[in-house]
């Protein structure tokens, strides 16, 4: 019998492919998870061996031979392989593509063997035995010597010469201390060479004495190490969740195990990294999108080999293999960035729970505003709820109030009462924080004489005016052009910006508070990985008293001097077509409220609205997020919306709407034959984007298993339909956004 390799190849087809082994291949020694280089059409691709089989549907003389097996042993652990298999089924995505997600980019290319990247050794310095025994304070008269000794103390594995140079430690200084026998030179492997180990220079914080809530949470999770146990850790930003994670990670490390910490895109700042590094030294591997492919591979290797016991990363770090997993943490679990919105549309939090169960380890989901999905699990007792009630220190909840702006005169969206409140708080020496979820100057540019509107030709959307750079920009497809000097339709020069974005509100605020510099924080002012942290630093240093931003400003930052926060426009979310919009609004309001009034000063949160009597707002005002969540869950249950009924969205886009709809109609009819309800096809909320027409089919109701089974049957057929060649399509299980 001929043995054949069944390989998961990274192509958009929901099936595996069989190959003959290469002539020199020892088939008996092969294991699932080894990478295999194979010919595929005219390409050479790297797939993952899934199975060795002896039977195939294709006659063996038609089979191609694999080029080579690339790894001596599988690079993906059994549990990650199973996780991928589960994810492929659950999210109805091709297994080959899912497995590719689990590999660093460098290992997806052909011709790469899987041996660990050779870390280049670089010169570094560390304390000698004598250096350790020397009290840095004995060098009080030589502050640079003292600083260097402190820095090396904070880093028992030493620091790179280059790192020390960056902190202005001169070679002469090092020679001097070396001569005194306090430090020595040696060769150091850069741990993750992307890391600026400034954290090393932050003196380790005095050990905090944890409060009773924190201790209780740590005890509860700690008691479950070594078994599957899901927890919801409920506490506002600043309530000490990270300290809880770190204490648990200590416990996990003491057992010789690894901890995986997933953090939202925006939460993984250099500060977060520095904080973990200050605590765990070089025992961490950090994975985020700002790394080069090589850095990612190195960090991935350190996790996979167990060289790093603490692995911190954004969404895709979930797929890192860990030889000794002990704990998973998902911080800000409600955050939308855990859901991948394109390609393999998985939810990292949901898969993390599955993985924790497979690995038989505890998982902690942290949030002040848990997703309704998570709350339901906590309510039903599936997850154990742990509460951190107070903030470290004083815990007065801020005053939450609606500002009724009906009939009020607004200056670029700012009401008189809001301006007065700002004045009050500024006079008291505090900082104020304003939110508006619309960047740019104005969302529309219109001709005052003929009504012409600047529209993106490739999307059915208006251009946003960016006044400072004098350009029109489409926020949907990214296309842009210069702001016209006159109306292209009637040649009038009377062009009016309609509505207000952050740039315009900034100008208005500046008029009212000319002496106050304003920190405007949105996607336009925070390009580059470090720029957000520079803003945060500047704000904490009180170089700005008025902060204005989109919701990126609401997440995870701690500004102790902010006593007033305001949401300029909440009505949009109250009346959005997306049923999740109220949940997001409530989360935003709560996050913002959690941010106002740290310390002794009582904070105030104001919501400008035309609908102060709206039940969502009144419930939120009186009972906070928990009361809102109860209401929202009851409503969802009534309508059998998620998390009570499953939803799947089948999307299609094509140069003509009819082509997109034709594919979805055929899918709908097929599903109907299987007894499943599908709504549509209808044009997507954004029906034209980047020149392509978009339609969608919403499949809901019924037990999830029936839905899954029907899709598993449908999609491989759909792939072969002629309609599927004329439209681009995708499937989104548990969609988070309907756009
Ligand atoms: P979260 O992760 O919930 O935002 P953190 O763990 O980051 O909260 O804590 C916020 C701040 O309060 C940090 O500076 C932290 O060091 C400090 N902190 C946390 N717990 C305590 C405590 N028990 N005593 C004193 N300070 C604490
Ligand atoms: Zn005109
Ligand atoms: Zn566009």
Features:
single chain, 739 residues, alpha/beta, GIY-YIG endonuclease, Rossmann fold, 5 domains, seven-stranded parallel beta sheet, six-stranded parallel beta sheet, 21 helices, 34 strands, 31% helix, binds adenosine-5'-diphosphate, binds zinc ion
Describe this protein's structure.
The protein has five domains: 4-108, GIY-YIG endonuclease, CATH 3.40.1440.60; 122-188; 194-388, 3-Layer(aba) Sandwich (Rossmann fold), CATH 3.40.50.300; 399-442 and 499-636, 3-Layer(aba) Sandwich (Rossmann fold); 647-733, 2-Layer Sandwich (Alpha-Beta Plaits), CATH 3.30.70.600. It is built from 21 helices and 34 strands. Strands 11-12-10-13-14-9-15 form a seven-stranded parallel sheet, sandwiched between helices. A six-stranded parallel sheet has the order 16-30-29-19-28-27, sandwiched between helices. Strands 2-1-4-3-5 form a five-stranded antiparallel sheet. A hairpin with a 4-residue loop joins strand 23 (464-466) and strand 24 (471-473). The model is unreliable at 114-120 and 192-204 (pLDDT under 50). Bound molecules: adenosine-5'-diphosphate and zinc ion (2 copies).
Give a brief rundown of this model.
By secondary structure, the protein is α/β, with parallel strands linked by helices. The chain contains 21 helices and 34 strands. The two termini are 52 Å apart.
User: What can be said about the biggest beta sheet?
Assistant: 7 strands, parallel
* Helical content class: 25-40%
**CATH topology tier name of the largest domain:** Rossmann fold
Average pLDDT works out at 87
The CATH homologous superfamily of the largest domain corresponds to P-loop containing nucleotide triphosphate hydrolases
